[in-house]
Structure prediction request, 286 residues.
Amino acid sequence: MDIVEITREIIDIGNLTTRVTSPTCGAISTFLGTTRNNFQGKKVKTLEYEAYEPMAKKEMQKICDNIRDKWSVENIALVHRIGDVPITQASVAIVVSSPHRKESLEAVQYGIDTLKATVPIWKKEIYEDDSYSWKENSECCEI
Amino acid sequence: MDIVEITREIIDIGNLTTRVTSPTCGAISTFLGTTRNNFQGKKVKTLEYEAYEPMAKKEMQKICDNIRDKWSVENIALVHRIGDVPITQASVAIVVSSPHRKESLEAVQYGIDTLKATVPIWKKEIYEDDSYSWKENSECCEI
Prediction:
Protein backbone atom coordinates (compact mmCIF):
# COMPACT_ATOMS: atom_id res chain seq x y z
CA MET A 1 0.00 0.00 0.00
CA ASP A 2 1.22 3.49 -0.86
CA ILE A 3 0.19 6.50 1.24
CA VAL A 4 0.91 9.76 -0.63
CA GLU A 5 -0.42 12.83 1.11
CA ILE A 6 -0.01 16.59 1.27
CA THR A 7 -1.44 18.08 4.43
CA ARG A 8 -1.73 21.34 6.36
CA GLU A 9 -1.99 19.47 9.68
CA ILE A 10 0.68 18.30 12.11
CA ILE A 11 2.16 14.97 10.93
CA ASP A 12 1.31 12.33 13.55
CA ILE A 13 4.23 9.92 13.32
CA GLY A 14 2.69 7.41 15.73
CA ASN A 15 -0.42 7.15 13.59
CA LEU A 16 1.57 7.01 10.35
CA THR A 17 3.75 4.21 11.73
CA THR A 18 0.64 2.22 12.67
CA ARG A 19 -0.75 2.64 9.14
CA VAL A 20 2.48 1.30 7.60
CA THR A 21 2.89 -1.61 10.04
CA SER A 22 2.38 -5.09 8.57
CA PRO A 23 2.35 -8.57 10.17
CA THR A 24 4.64 -9.80 7.37
CA CYS A 25 7.31 -7.19 8.18
CA GLY A 26 10.19 -7.19 10.66
CA ALA A 27 11.30 -3.63 9.95
CA ILE A 28 9.93 -0.10 9.76
CA SER A 29 12.30 2.73 8.85
CA THR A 30 11.40 6.39 9.07
CA PHE A 31 12.78 9.78 8.11
CA LEU A 32 11.36 13.05 9.41
CA GLY A 33 12.50 16.44 8.14
CA THR A 34 11.94 18.99 10.92
CA THR A 35 12.17 22.78 11.03
CA ARG A 36 15.53 23.86 12.42
CA ASN A 37 16.00 27.13 14.31
CA ASN A 38 18.95 28.26 12.20
CA PHE A 39 20.17 28.36 8.62
CA GLN A 40 23.64 29.50 7.58
CA GLY A 41 24.06 31.51 10.77
CA LYS A 42 20.63 33.16 10.56
CA LYS A 43 18.01 32.53 13.25
CA VAL A 44 14.90 31.01 11.69
CA LYS A 45 11.49 31.83 13.21
CA THR A 46 9.34 29.51 11.10
CA LEU A 47 9.14 27.87 7.67
CA GLU A 48 6.30 28.14 5.22
CA TYR A 49 5.88 25.54 2.45
CA GLU A 50 3.86 25.82 -0.73
CA ALA A 51 3.31 23.16 -3.37
CA TYR A 52 1.69 22.77 -6.75
CA GLU A 53 -0.26 19.86 -5.32
CA PRO A 54 -1.19 17.75 -8.38
CA MET A 55 2.39 17.79 -9.65
CA ALA A 56 3.90 17.26 -6.19
CA LYS A 57 1.68 14.22 -5.54
CA LYS A 58 2.53 12.81 -8.97
CA GLU A 59 6.26 13.08 -8.24
CA MET A 60 5.74 11.59 -4.77
CA GLN A 61 3.89 8.63 -6.31
CA LYS A 62 6.80 8.19 -8.76
CA ILE A 63 9.15 7.87 -5.80
CA CYS A 64 6.95 5.08 -4.37
CA ASP A 65 6.96 3.29 -7.75
CA ASN A 66 10.74 3.56 -8.00
CA ILE A 67 11.17 2.24 -4.47
CA ARG A 68 9.07 -0.82 -5.40
CA ASP A 69 11.20 -1.36 -8.53
CA LYS A 70 14.37 -1.33 -6.44
CA TRP A 71 13.48 -2.98 -3.12
CA SER A 72 11.15 -5.57 -1.68
CA VAL A 73 9.04 -3.45 0.67
CA GLU A 74 5.49 -3.78 1.95
CA ASN A 75 3.99 -0.33 2.72
CA ILE A 76 5.27 3.14 1.93
CA ALA A 77 4.09 6.49 3.34
CA LEU A 78 5.24 9.81 1.84
CA VAL A 79 3.64 12.78 3.55
CA HIS A 80 4.52 16.45 3.04
CA ARG A 81 3.09 19.22 5.16
CA ILE A 82 2.52 22.65 3.61
CA GLY A 83 1.74 26.03 5.15
CA ASP A 84 3.48 27.12 8.35
CA VAL A 85 5.74 24.52 9.95
CA PRO A 86 7.06 25.82 13.29
CA ILE A 87 10.45 24.91 14.73
CA THR A 88 10.79 21.21 15.80
CA GLN A 89 7.72 20.17 13.76
CA ALA A 90 7.97 17.87 10.74
CA SER A 91 7.48 19.11 7.18
CA VAL A 92 8.07 15.71 5.62
CA ALA A 93 7.74 12.09 6.71
CA ILE A 94 8.84 8.94 4.89
CA VAL A 95 7.92 5.62 6.49
CA VAL A 96 8.61 2.22 4.90
CA SER A 97 7.94 -1.30 6.15
CA SER A 98 9.75 -4.37 4.82
CA PRO A 99 10.25 -8.01 5.81
CA HIS A 100 13.99 -7.39 6.40
CA ARG A 101 15.74 -4.26 7.64
CA LYS A 102 18.12 -3.50 4.76
CA GLU A 103 15.33 -2.78 2.28
CA SER A 104 13.39 -0.23 4.33
CA LEU A 105 16.56 1.55 5.47
CA GLU A 106 17.80 1.96 1.90
CA ALA A 107 14.33 2.89 0.60
CA VAL A 108 13.94 5.70 3.16
CA GLN A 109 17.33 7.18 2.29
CA TYR A 110 16.51 7.03 -1.43
CA GLY A 111 13.07 8.48 -0.72
CA ILE A 112 14.25 11.63 1.03
CA ASP A 113 17.17 12.21 -1.38
CA THR A 114 14.81 11.91 -4.36
CA LEU A 115 12.01 13.94 -2.81
CA LYS A 116 14.41 16.82 -2.21
CA ALA A 117 15.59 16.62 -5.82
CA THR A 118 12.33 16.15 -7.72
CA VAL A 119 9.19 17.23 -5.84
CA PRO A 120 8.06 20.80 -6.66
CA ILE A 121 7.70 22.29 -3.20
CA TRP A 122 8.84 25.79 -2.27
CA LYS A 123 9.94 26.97 1.12
CA LYS A 124 9.86 30.43 2.64
CA GLU A 125 12.39 30.84 5.44
CA ILE A 126 11.21 33.51 7.84
CA TYR A 127 13.99 34.88 10.04
CA GLU A 128 13.83 36.45 13.49
CA ASP A 129 14.13 39.98 12.01
CA ASP A 130 11.06 39.20 9.81
CA SER A 131 13.11 39.15 6.62
CA TYR A 132 12.57 36.05 4.49
CA SER A 133 13.70 34.14 1.45
CA TRP A 134 11.91 31.70 -0.88
CA LYS A 135 13.73 28.56 -1.99
CA GLU A 136 13.00 25.60 -4.18
CA ASN A 137 13.05 22.29 -2.37
CA SER A 138 16.17 21.19 -4.25
CA GLU A 139 18.08 24.26 -2.99
CA CYS A 140 17.23 23.55 0.63
CA CYS A 141 20.21 21.94 2.23
CA GLU A 142 19.04 22.40 5.82
CA ILE A 143 18.22 18.73 6.11
CA MET B 1 21.29 13.35 25.22
CA ASP B 2 21.34 9.54 25.17
CA ILE B 3 18.23 7.54 26.04
CA VAL B 4 19.16 3.89 26.73
CA GLU B 5 16.28 1.81 28.02
CA ILE B 6 15.11 -1.76 28.41
CA THR B 7 11.37 -2.02 28.95
CA ARG B 8 8.54 -4.54 29.25
CA GLU B 9 6.02 -2.01 27.95
CA ILE B 10 4.88 -1.20 24.40
CA ILE B 11 7.36 1.19 22.74
CA ASP B 12 5.53 4.47 22.04
CA ILE B 13 7.27 5.78 18.92
CA GLY B 14 5.40 9.10 18.96
CA ASN B 15 6.60 9.82 22.48
CA LEU B 16 10.15 8.63 21.75
CA THR B 17 10.32 10.85 18.67
CA THR B 18 9.22 13.85 20.76
CA ARG B 19 11.94 13.11 23.34
CA VAL B 20 14.63 13.04 20.62
CA THR B 21 13.40 16.15 18.77
CA SER B 22 15.64 19.23 18.99
CA PRO B 23 15.22 22.81 17.71
CA THR B 24 18.77 22.66 16.31
CA CYS B 25 17.97 19.59 14.16
CA GLY B 26 16.48 19.25 10.68
CA ALA B 27 16.36 15.45 10.68
CA ILE B 28 15.10 12.56 12.77
CA SER B 29 15.73 9.01 11.53
CA THR B 30 14.17 5.93 13.08
CA PHE B 31 14.38 2.18 12.87
CA LEU B 32 11.82 -0.15 14.45
CA GLY B 33 12.28 -3.92 14.58
CA THR B 34 8.83 -5.52 14.69
CA THR B 35 7.62 -9.07 15.26
CA ARG B 36 6.95 -10.79 11.94
CA ASN B 37 4.37 -13.56 11.59
CA ASN B 38 6.75 -15.96 9.86
CA PHE B 39 10.33 -17.20 10.01
CA GLN B 40 11.88 -19.52 7.43
CA GLY B 41 8.47 -20.82 6.39
CA LYS B 42 7.23 -21.36 9.96
CA LYS B 43 4.26 -19.40 11.29
CA VAL B 44 5.29 -17.39 14.34
CA LYS B 45 2.73 -16.80 17.11
CA THR B 46 4.77 -14.45 19.28
CA LEU B 47 8.35 -13.63 20.29
CA GLU B 48 9.73 -13.53 23.78
CA TYR B 49 12.92 -11.59 24.54
CA GLU B 50 15.20 -11.93 27.56
CA ALA B 51 18.26 -9.86 28.38
CA TYR B 52 21.02 -9.74 30.94
CA GLU B 53 20.07 -6.15 31.60
CA PRO B 54 23.26 -4.58 33.05
CA MET B 55 25.37 -5.97 30.21
CA ALA B 56 22.78 -5.19 27.53
CA LYS B 57 22.50 -1.56 28.67
CA LYS B 58 26.29 -1.26 28.79
CA GLU B 59 26.55 -2.47 25.18
CA MET B 60 23.70 -0.18 24.13
CA GLN B 61 25.49 2.80 25.71
CA LYS B 62 28.66 1.79 23.82
CA ILE B 63 26.68 2.02 20.56
CA CYS B 64 25.63 5.59 21.47
CA ASP B 65 29.25 6.50 22.25
CA ASN B 66 30.44 5.05 18.93
CA ILE B 67 27.73 6.93 17.03
CA ARG B 68 28.93 10.18 18.62
CA ASP B 69 32.52 9.37 17.64
CA LYS B 70 31.49 8.84 14.02
CA TRP B 71 28.69 11.36 13.33
CA SER B 72 27.54 14.78 14.41
CA VAL B 73 24.17 13.95 15.98
CA GLU B 74 22.14 15.62 18.72
CA ASN B 75 19.99 13.04 20.57
CA ILE B 76 20.00 9.25 20.43
CA ALA B 77 17.38 6.80 21.73
CA LEU B 78 18.06 3.06 21.93
CA VAL B 79 15.15 1.16 23.46
CA HIS B 80 14.75 -2.62 23.61
CA ARG B 81 11.60 -4.30 24.80
CA ILE B 82 11.82 -7.64 26.61
CA GLY B 83 9.17 -10.21 27.51
CA ASP B 84 6.39 -11.04 25.06
CA VAL B 85 6.35 -8.97 21.88
CA PRO B 86 3.24 -9.85 19.81
CA ILE B 87 3.13 -9.74 16.01
CA THR B 88 3.38 -6.16 14.53
CA GLN B 89 4.71 -4.70 17.80
CA ALA B 90 8.25 -3.32 18.12
CA SER B 91 10.98 -5.09 20.05
CA VAL B 92 13.60 -2.45 19.32
CA ALA B 93 13.61 1.24 18.46
CA ILE B 94 16.51 3.44 17.40
CA VAL B 95 15.82 7.15 16.97
CA VAL B 96 18.49 9.74 16.16
CA SER B 97 18.21 13.49 15.57
CA SER B 98 20.86 15.49 13.70
CA PRO B 99 21.18 18.94 12.12
CA HIS B 100 21.47 17.37 8.62
CA ARG B 101 19.89 14.19 7.29
CA LYS B 102 22.93 12.15 6.27
CA GLU B 103 24.21 11.79 9.83
CA SER B 104 21.04 10.45 11.45
CA LEU B 105 20.32 8.09 8.54
CA GLU B 106 23.80 6.55 8.73
CA ALA B 107 23.76 6.46 12.54
CA VAL B 108 20.47 4.53 12.64
CA GLN B 109 21.74 1.93 10.16
CA TYR B 110 24.96 1.52 12.16
CA GLY B 111 22.94 1.36 15.37
CA ILE B 112 20.71 -1.54 14.38
CA ASP B 113 23.53 -3.49 12.68
CA THR B 114 25.71 -3.14 15.77
CA LEU B 115 22.91 -3.83 18.25
CA LYS B 116 22.14 -7.12 16.48
CA ALA B 117 25.83 -8.06 16.59
CA THR B 118 26.82 -7.05 20.12
CA VAL B 119 23.92 -6.70 22.57
CA PRO B 120 23.29 -9.85 24.67
CA ILE B 121 19.57 -10.36 24.14
CA TRP B 122 17.96 -13.75 23.53
CA LYS B 123 14.82 -14.44 21.61
CA LYS B 124 12.36 -17.30 21.91
CA GLU B 125 10.37 -17.85 18.73
CA ILE B 126 7.04 -19.45 19.57
CA TYR B 127 5.39 -21.08 16.56
CA GLU B 128 1.71 -21.74 15.89
CA ASP B 129 2.08 -25.41 16.89
CA ASP B 130 3.48 -24.24 20.27
CA SER B 131 6.97 -25.51 19.48
CA TYR B 132 9.70 -22.93 20.03
CA SER B 133 13.38 -22.16 19.62
CA TRP B 134 15.75 -19.87 21.51
CA LYS B 135 18.20 -17.75 19.57
CA GLU B 136 20.91 -15.25 20.35
CA ASN B 137 20.27 -11.79 18.97
CA SER B 138 23.16 -12.12 16.53
CA GLU B 139 21.62 -15.25 15.00
CA CYS B 140 18.29 -13.55 14.36
CA CYS B 141 18.10 -12.61 10.75
CA GLU B 142 14.36 -11.92 10.67
CA ILE B 143 14.99 -8.20 10.57
